[in-house]
Amino acid sequence: MPSLATSSPRELQHLNMDNKKKVGKDRLCFEEMSQWSQSLERLLASKYGIKIFQAFLKSEFSDENIEFWLVCEDYKKIKSSFRMTSRAKKIFKHYIQAGAPREINIDHKTRDLIRWNIKAPSTVCFDDAQRIVYGLMERDSYPRFLRSDIYRTLLDSISE
In this predicted structure, what is the pLDDT of residue 4? Predict the structure, then answer.
């Protein structure tokens, strides 16, 4: 099976076709997909929505924002302070520091605040950056996604 990121809109239809055999919450349906157009929050509340949005962003070589946002959501669930410290450093090196491999677009002030916050990590130390990234996705990536062939073709295939 091809990865979502490299799939054409036609290939993504398997999400619907494969799920026709399933019942209940594990089935992607028109109602769920149509809710994605109501808000980015609704899109990100759907496991299929996240995967398809990620595939779209990856096809545009701009998936670092959703990746960072999801990593932060997982980070907030960490209970162990040792694990939190370790993960905070990894997130900083991978997404926040200047020149990071998956550097997100945040201002210098936020970057410095996070650098300070991870000295004593808490569940909220990346909240400002996560809020900025969410805003960028909401204003830029999300509207493009709703106009994309990936979304339109899949929505059409489900409504048939």
Answer: 46
88 vs 118: CA distance, rounded Å = 6
Name the DSSP letter for residue 46: S
Q: In one letter, which amino acid is 18?
A: D
Quote the CA–CA distance of 122 and 143 in Å, as a whole number. 32
3-state helix, strand, coil in the chain (%, to 5): 70, 0, 30
CA torsion 136-34-54-1 (nearest 10°) is -170
**Mean pLDDT in order along the chain per 10 residues (160 residues):** 44 45 60 93 96 95 95 97 97 97 97 96 97 97 96 86
**Residue 64 contacts residue 44 (beta carbons within 8 Å):** no
d(CA 12, CA 96): 32
Burial, 146: exposed, middle or buried (Cβ in 10 Å; 0-12, 13-18, 19+)?
Answer: middle
